[in-house]
Design a protein that fits this description.
By secondary structure, the protein is mainly beta. The protein has one domain: Jelly Rolls. Helix content is 11%, strand content 43%. The chain has three helices and 14 strands. A five-stranded antiparallel sheet has the order 3-4-11-5-9. The protein has a five-stranded antiparallel sheet with strand order 10-6-8-7-12. Strand 3 and strand 4 form a beta hairpin. Helix 1 crosses helix 3.
Length: 199
């Protein structure tokens, strides 16, 4: 992928540091509805390692999307996290999510719904296609870097922002998340992606 140097201020203005979780940055390349393209970078200090195994409360709840998405791995060990209802290893609670990106202030409201299931992971070797209703989270081993592109499809008019977690999300701390990104920081991320900046 190549981006024009003149696009960098716009891309930076649409990108976020600590997006959804600490240590993970989001870079938006195209904001066209139905064809949006973004990328995520898990830096070494990320908290995605908390989403699988006996690592305590999850950092990112298992969630659906507002559209069909294709995840394409760039580098690193990136895994989808799913829940299997054939097993009852742990209890997950359902929450309704209000996005701080869309609403300015984020929140989670417990719905009272509970499921007993088991989390399992599927590595993203190249790419993974997820219908909007396919609920997942993301796992990257601790102290490892990883990156992946997200290609968005047509909006799902029936999307509801419900998610599942073993954490008490009513106490979720949004401080430090969704921080603005400057151009110099963006340039460092683009190098990790092998995205060429051209004149």
């Amino acid at each position: 992928m190549k981006v024009n140097r003149l696009q960098l201020p716009w891309i930076a203005s649409k990108s976020l540091k600590n997006c959804h979780v600490r240590g993970v940055d989001s870079v938006l390349f195209d904001d066209t509805s139905g064809a949006r393209v973004r990328a995520f970078v898990a830096n070494k200090d990320h908290d995605l390692w908390m989403n699988y195994g006996d690592n305590g409360p999850m950092s990112v709840a298992i969630h659906p999307h507002h559209c069909r998405v294709t995840l394409k791995r760039v580098f690193g060990n990136v895994h989808n996290v799913f829940k299997d209802h054939r097993f009852d290893d742990e209890m997950l609670k359902e929450y309704k999510y209000v996005s701080p990106i869309l609403k300015g202030t984020g929140s989670f409201k417990e719905t009272g719904m509970i499921k007993y299931c088991k989390r399992y992971i599927v590595p993203i070797e190249n790419e993974a296609d997820l219908p909007s209703w396919r609920m997942h989270s993301v796992y990257v081993p601790g102290n490892e870097e990883a990156a992946w592109f997200v290609y968005e499809g047509v909006e799902d008019t029936e999307y509801e922002p419900y998610c599942w977690s073993n954490a008490d999300l009513t106490k979720f701390d949004f401080s430090g998340l969704y921080q603005p990104m400057d151009v110099e920081y963006l340039k460092g991320l683009l190098k990790k992606f092998n995205v060429e900046v051209v004149d």
